[in-house]
Amino acid sequence: MLFLIIKRILLGFITLFIVSIITFVGTEVLPGDACTTYLERQAFGEQLEACYRRLGLNVPAYERYVSWALNAIQGDFGYSLSGEMPIKEVLGPRIKNSLVLASAAIFIGIPIALILGIITALWRDKLPDVAISTVTIFAMTIPEFISATLLILIIAIWLEWLPGIVIVPTDVSFLELLPNIILPVVAIAMIMTAHMARMVRSSVIQVMASEYVQMAILKGVPYWKMVFKHVLPNALLPAINVVALTIAWLLGGVVVTEVVFNYPGLGRLVIESISNRDLPTVQALAIILASIYVSINLLADLLTLMLNPRLKTLQIRK
Amino acid sequence: MTDIIQKVKNLSIGFRSKKGEEILILKNISTNIKKGETVGIVGESGSGKSTLALAMMGYVKHGLYTIGGECQFNSSNLLKMKSKDLEKIRGRKIAMIPQNAGQALTPNLKIGYQIDEALQLHSDLDEKEREKKISELLNKVRLPSPETIALRYPHELSGGQQQRVAVAMALAGTPDLLLLDEPTTGLDVTTQAHVLELLNFIAKDTGTSMVYVSHDLGAIAQVSDRIIVMYSGEIVLEGPSRDILKRPIHPYTHGLLKSIPKLSLAGLPESMPGSQPQPGIIQSGCSFFDRCNFSDENCKNNSPKLEFLKDLNTSVRCFNYEKLVNESQASQTVNKIKNKSQDKEILNLSEVSISYAKQKLLDQIFNRISDDNPTVKDININIKKGETIALVGESGSGKSTILKSIAGLLRTKDGLIRFDENRNLSSNLKERDPNDLRIIQLIFQNPDESLNPNHTVEEIIAQPLKLYFGLKGEELKKNIIDLLQKVRLGEFYTSRYPRQLSGGEKQRVAVARAFAAKPDIILCDEVTSALDVSVQAAVLNLLQQLKEDFGTTYIFVSHDLAVVRAISDRVAVLYQGRLCEVGPSNDVYKFPSHPYTEVLLGAVLEPDPDIKPKLVAEDIVEERPPEKGCSFQGRCSRIVGDICKKEIPPWQLTDSGNAIRCHIPIKELQKEQF
Fold it and tell me: What does pTM read for this prediction?
């Protein structure tokens, strides 16, 4: 078991290493570099070379990679080009904002998704299922930029209940941010909840049709005890990985929603820094997003392993 | 009457088709289960037997509904009862032992908890007493060390152990009626015999009534007092089990009994043509009409009623049962097969070992396999052209592993596989040339999985023809139709998809695909295990016919010793991947000499209440073959001493050409046959 965890963690680091090389090489082979972007028309002669020296671009690529990687491990990603400030400081509030948005969506969305999924499965083909399923399919199919725009139109413009777009400094306090994030959270949670509820529904239905559930019924186990003891633990295991992917997706920034609501999160930062050709920031973002995906998937795998007795013994036997 | 425990009255269960028609699965069933009696319900798949058993617990599967009638238990109708009240009956008064215990035990709950749950629901014992009771129950079903078993998860037990746990769970509520839905299907012969013996013991010990549902007349014969035969949702025959088995007066039962291969008879049983009508196909007359040998005009137009014959104490649904009254089962005719093998050797396995051990890094680099105790070891078999050789043994005996290696799907560790005396077949599939691949074809157990569901029958059979012979256009089409006719399927099957075929038809397509390559050797891996008995007989007959036409050699793997007896010329008995005995089938079956062969043959269930299985050895499951000595030492009841544990037994030859691997001298072995 321990060996397996170590192996998975090592694999995670290897994945990150490969991602870092790919992003580094990617930014390297692109025509132009930080200095030509920064200096624009003055990018020649003395000035350009001075810039190269200042940014340390005059040394070979592999040396730059090593020093960049060593600093990155310590959390120092260098300087952002556009803002001329440490990337650390640019990223910090953005990560915090994305985290706030994501956790709000997770804490609201996942319980609702589970409950809806279980209800639709248990009342399969009956009224609750038909009603909820119709709504979830609807919520799933409308693209988020449309639902987000509609939300702004109805709640912010017609009813004037909440601000339509987020116009706050990036380092605003949580309480001030709160009214601003309600609409974005609703927009994200809608689509996420609908997806997960469908997944939970089909998983529960599959388990409900299994022979061991039939056996539990024939054993005389009362309905709700059967649902909680025999059905849910087995039905929700495969959901863990889907939930993990959703969380990673949320943390990685929900680009479209953030742009529509002008929300200062990671997703928007990605777009901004790409269009500004702010390569150091892009590199830093790529590495951070990759580590979020890797670590959350790792956690999900370990959790599945711990909760599934089948996998646990298999590993021990080997 | 007070001694009736369950009363089924005019029960009809069905579903509504997409067009809104009512389609019946059970048609107007009435029967009574008496106290202390064991009733067997027999029928082929789709006859409605499981639906009937579940209805006796007031359970109707999702999608089905009760159309009419009732299932009375203590004079209340279970099918109309509220689920609150049903919970008090299920598990406490009526308990179910499921078909596949491996899937009927909840995977995330420990064995102990699952039994404890039943005790909590259906008894007033406190925690301490329950704990004791769990051990008692596990002991009663003869599981070793109950305390450790209780702490295990279902997947950590073997199939036989899981089935025993299911029995223990059903007994936890001390029910008055036990329903058993194919409780031994899918178990090894020896395990099956042991579980049946246990059930018999429990029936006697506790006086519980049992309803035993199975397609296997052999198992039914061992346990039941009374037999109900079902066909297409109706009871066609009901009576005391001895009378039904010895003198089946319904043509369907008659045909069914005839199509079961028996240990005592070499040769292929007669097959019953056709198949059970699909539910919903409404036809006038008797539902068995088009498969019946005794039918007349009357049967075509009028459906017979279930008629009680007082002097025979039997109910039968047939106009012409009198024709059958005088015919007994003993008149079973078999198509004797002639051994057409030539002296020419076609395939030779010498010193073959196969290992499933995971390769270490160093071994991977040098491309070698190192394993001191491989799964299959020292296999030496000569196979002659045109013969049918069978590999038999329990699950885990390595029989399918050997087939895979011959087919090239699995690398051998050591040894040679030679074709036609001098051609070495590479053990690696990728290194075999197309002709090497063509000469050996494989037919799998389950045609549902071996036929591509997105290909039509034509495309399936065309594959080998295109690949090996480059046929195209008209010629290809002609060959396909030719092959279909050879396997008794008409031309109109070409455009069908596998899902539109019955199980028997699918297996015929798989047979046609194998023969399309014009192979010299066909490997049959449990080809009839997934089929109903009447269909099994037809497929066996077909295989025999094709073999005579083409002169093909068969290597036949099966766990069913009666089937092997019917079709094979020679038998090789395997235990834990080592050969125990090789010889002509007549001799292997007549003088069971190796102790393991004796165990296997003793456990076979025959559809005859007078032939009881003989349980010689314990049904322990061994994980790995022993490091040294005889492979069967762990379960052998005739160990002669330390020599069995230390030395690999020598091959001994009998006069008739049987080769036996045992330390006991031949003469002594033959003396002690049962």
Answer: 0.81
